[in-house]
Design brief:
Elements: H1 2-13, H2 15-25, H3 27-41, H4 50-90, H5 93-118, E1 128-134, H6 139-158, E2 162-170, E3 176-184, H7 188-192, E4 197-204, E5 213-224, E6 239-244, E7 260-265, E8 270-274, H8 280-300, H9 307-311, E9 322-327, E10 333-336, E11 342-343, H10 346-350, H11 355-366
Length: 378
């Protein structure tokens, strides 16, 4: 059957992905480690140190789970090839339909496994804190900032992430000047870290009487929401506190008192803010927690050139510094300038369909960021 012949071709193309997973999991090394752990567990003194024994037992379970994941994919792959041959020989249309359903499920599991293997960073499993700041472009940039906030809100809905706004500042006349928010869900930071940088919009401006082509910029800072007690000291003299009234979208006041808190860390110029809670004290504690998390991550980085990435200050909000361009006129295209990934459907992208850009970034990161230089692409 022609449909199954085409399916077989697609399936054979998946073999390289299976090999990639095998190599990423380092199956041979894991098998050697299993033998080593089994020898340790045969020792009568293994359980004398319960804490260490439990840790090793958990390691063994994790290793076996990862190997089982690969084995299931490989078994399904081989089974599908055999079933395709059988269905073709017997011209079994009912079996062909079952094979197609199994292939679709296999393909999804394969893609999920490939991406999950790329999320191995220390903080990848944590919630993500995002902060959008309108840059060059005035009202146009504030409108773009609102478009991006909507995009990430849609992405959160699509992936069942919970979104909570921490701080919100209306733009002058339209849009959003800045907004900080949390996306809560498994691997939220691992996925959204790919979005950190300067985003550029090119379109015929609805705010310009002559409807001229306008370029505007918005920067996005992304950091993991580290909630554990962070062992880092902050000198109170290095902090500047600002208190103001909390407000929501459209200027709606959430609280009539000055409960919102903004903290500036003077040595690094890091600014964090929170208006999520009802009381000033709770907002202050939340903002300090965010600041400690940022400073902790910076402390973990030894190379000075990574400092701006951690702080979210990825160059200037201007030409030549963007990571992604969104072009609406005179043609339609969204292009990531690091990976080269692009889409001809900006409407879908602004509706939160950004998975292809995230996945491309994770693969690019795994390869060591080849040709990392960000270029200005009109």
């Amino acid at each position: 059957m022609l449909e199954l012949d085409n399916l077989k071709t697609e399936l054979l193309d998946k073999e390289s992905a299976l090999t990639e997973i095998y190599n990423s999991l380092d199956i041979e090394k894991k098998n050697s480690r299993i033998e080593e752990i089994n020898r340790l567990m045969e020792n009568n003194e293994f359980w004398d140190d319960v804490k260490k024994a439990n840790s090793i037992s958990k390691e063994l379970k994790d290793i076996n789970d990862s190997i089982d994941t690969y084995k299931k994919l490989k078994t399904t792959y081989n089974d599908l090839l055999e079933l395709i041959e059988l269905a073709n020989i017997e011209n079994d249309k009912k079996l062909a339909k079952e094979i197609i359903n199994q292939y679709q499920s296999f393909s999804l599991n394969l893609d999920d496994t490939r991406i999950s293997l790329l999320l191995s960073g220390e903080y990848d499993k944590l919630d993500a804190i995002l902060k959008l700041n309108a840059g060059s472009g005035g009202t146009e940039s504030c409108d773009f900032c609102q478009m991006l906030f909507r995009m990430y809100s849609k992405y959160a809905i699509n992936h069942s992430f919970e979104l909570s706004v921490l701080d919100y500042l209306d733009g002058d006349g339209a849009g959003i000047k800045s907004v900080s928010f949390v996306l809560k869900g498994q691997y939220a930071y691992g996925y959204l870290k790919s979005e950190m940088g300067v985003h550029r919009l090119v379109r015929l401006s609805p705010f310009n009487a002559q409807n001229k082509r306008q370029t505007s910029f918005v920067s996005l800072d992304v950091m993991p929401d580290i909630k554990d007690d962070i062992n880092i000291e902050i000198n109170e003299d290095d902090l500047k506190y600002d208190y103001y009234r909390a407000s929501g979208a459209g200027g709606q006041h959430v609280n009539k008192t000055s409960s919102a808190v903004r903290i500036t860390h003077l040595p690094t110029n890091i600014v964090v803010a929170c208006q999520e809670e009802r009381s000033q004290l709770l907002n202050k504690n939340r903002a300090l927690q965010m600041l400690k998390a940022k400073l902790f991550i910076i402390k973990q980085k030894e190379q000075a050139d990574k400092l701006s990435d951690i702080r979210g200050e990825v160059k200037d909000n201007a030409f030549g510094s963007q990571i992604r361009s969104y072009v609406l006129q005179p043609y339609k295209m969204v292009k990531d300038l690091r990976t080269g990934e692009e889409s001809g459907n900006p409407d879908a992208v602004f509706d939160g369909k950004i998975e292809k850009f995230i996945n491309a970034y994770l693969r690019w990161l795994k390869l060591g960021c080849p040709d990392r230089k960000i270029v200005n692409n009109d």
